[in-house]
Amino acid sequence: MASTLVPPPQGSRARSLVGPIMLIGLGIVLLLVTSGQLSWLSFWDWFGRYWPVILIGWGALKLYEYLDAQKRGVRPAGLGAGGVFLVILLIMLGLTHQGLRQVPWDRFRDFNIDGENPFAEPTYDRTEEVTQDFPANATLHVESQRGSVSVISSTDNKIRVTAHKKIGASNPNDVEKLNAGSKLQLTGSGNSFLLTIANSSAWIQSDLEISLPKQASLSITTHRGDTTVSGREGDVLITSDHGDTTISNVNGKVSFKGRGGTIHFDQVKGDVDADGNIGNVELSDIAGRATISGSLDQIRMTAISKGVSFRSARTELDIASVPGDLTIDSGDFHGSSIQGPFRLITRSKDVDLSEVSGDVKIQNSDGNVALSLSAPPSGNIDVENKGSDIRISVPEKGGYKVEAHNSHDDIVSEFDSVRISGDEEKTAMGTIGNGSGRIHLTNRNGGIEIVKGGSSAPTPPTPPKVGSTQAPVEVPSLDTKGPKGPKGPKGPKGSKDMPAPPVVQNN
Predict the structure, then answer these.
(1) What gap in Å lies between CA 326 and CA 335, rounded to an integer?
(2) Is residue 494 part of a domain?
């Protein structure tokens, strides 16, 4: 026969175990703190990470109490106003801790007024050193939670590590205990070793200076702190969350993954890779290929031998090599001495390239394109724009077949061999020189200007005679351009028998 539930008698209520258990837990925490076994900072950090466990345990206990009360035929204990208040308090404290973890407290700890830091605990300096044999062709993995990492080459097959520690402690008696708990740990054997700091407390900063055989490969992971590496034969891999990274004089491959700060790679013979949400990227004297992707504030490149590949949310770039320099930021794209094939797909950037050789393909919108071609041999040039102007400077001795199409704006050419026709839809066709290369220009709602290389420069003054006291006259640079002004209204069109004179546009 199935059992039936007996309605609980009125006035009979089971007692809850939540209150006594919480009092016991609070007493244990207070005992650990007052005895020096646990700091309030450590408890607060633990609570901020695991406070949902308290709610889970509380809910499990209330479920058990409810089932037990049903079994005994009494009314289960309710949550009560005090319980509701405690639940809300726990949730608010947990979410507050979660929000505080997102605050960059390092900025406050590093803020000083007259040598004093009003926001941080007093700091104490300690130093630790480790030296041992290290195989020349092994790999060293470095993990640093807080502090800078600097790596140089050693003259023997030994690794030497010096940790300069800054320990924050309100009680001076805690300094040695914190120092003892933050020891350097170098583990591993064979061809792989790991260097870490035992304690990852937020109040201990450990700046590492490492001397390592230059043939060894290197992998560094940092969370807060700058990284500097120089004089390496092997590969270098850097993973960083916050801080600047400087790599120089490396014969192997260099890779970077992370966010924030500035990365500077100089004199690297291998390939270079950089990926992440980075502040600025500076590359110079790179013998290999440079591959960059992610969100960046600015890129500056000089002397990249084996090509460049860059990918971001609104830009795709591929270049055969950059003997000169190249700068990319949020609104501008400038380069000189560029060797194609050159391919750029972007938007809302003013593109200004000079001394470009080889094949060129550019797609842009809402940004001017100014292109100055170098002397022959001629390549194939394809430029497409919308909403802004195209200006291309062609050497008079160059050889190109020219074809240009424009909608709702003008086409201007300084070459008599390039004929312009059309009304709203204008077309320019012609041949410059031997026509060995090709120029194809397409624009909409923006002008097209084809000018002779160097023709816009003013005629230089006659040099003074020998013995003359006349001061030399400075000749303006060919690349000087004033700011682009608004377009004026179009003038009257010329007749078919007499074409209209060219309109000079200020780019």
Answers:
(1) 4
(2) no
Let me know how long the chain is: 507
Question: SS3 of 454, please?
Answer: coil
Residue 438 lies in a domain: no
Q: Are residues 98 and 129 in the same domain?
A: no
Alpha-carbon span 404 to 386, nearest angstrom: 14
How far is residue 42 from each of residues 19, 32, 77, 94, 381, measured CA to CA in Å? 24, 11, 34, 15, 64
Could you write out the DSSP letters of every residue in 58-105?
Answer: HHHHHHHHHHHHHHHTSBPP--HHHHHHHHHHHHHHHHHHHHHHTS-H
Q: Please compute the mean of the pLDDT values over residues 483-501 and round it to a whole number.
A: 41
Please state the φ and ψ torsions of residue 501, each to the nearest 5 degrees.
-65, 155
Give yes or no: residues 211 and 125 share one domain.
yes
Q: CA-to-CA distance for 219 and 140, rounded, in angstroms?
A: 6
- Cα angle 29-49-110, degrees, rounded to a multiple of 5: 95
Q: What is the reported pLDDT for 3?
A: 52
- Residues 187-201 have a mean pLDDT of 83
The answer to whether residues 137 and 221 belong to one domain is yes
- Which pTM was predicted? 0.66
Residue of 136, 187, 189, 188 whose CA lies nearest to 197:
187
For 237-244, what is the mean pLDDT?
92
In this structure, what token pair is assigned to residue 143? 């993990």
Q: What is the mean pLDDT of residues 61-76?
A: 78
Same domain, 35 and 131: no
Residues 93 and 131 in one domain: no
Q: What is the dihedral of CA 463, 468, 472, 473, to 10 degrees?
A: -70
The 10s digit of each residue's pLDDT in 288-334 is 999 999 988 899 999 999 999 999 988 999 999 999 999 999 899 99
Sign of CA dihedral 90, 93, 98, 99: positive
Q: Does 130 lie in the same domain as 65? A: no
Name the least confident of 115-129, 241-255, 437-451.
Answer: 115-129
Residues 132 and 221 in one domain: yes
Number of domains in the chain: 2
Residues 31, 97 within the same domain:
yes
Q: Does a structural domain hold residue 414? A: no
Question: Does residue 354 form part of some domain?
Answer: no
Task: Check: CB of residue 332 under 8 Å from CB of residue 352.
Answer: yes
Asked whether 504 and 487 are in contact (CB, 8 A), the reply is no
Domain termination residue (choose one: 182, 209, 225): 225
- Domain boundary (194, 225, 256) is at 225
CA separation for the pair 255, 258 (Å, rounded) = 10
Residue 24 domain boundaries: 18-103
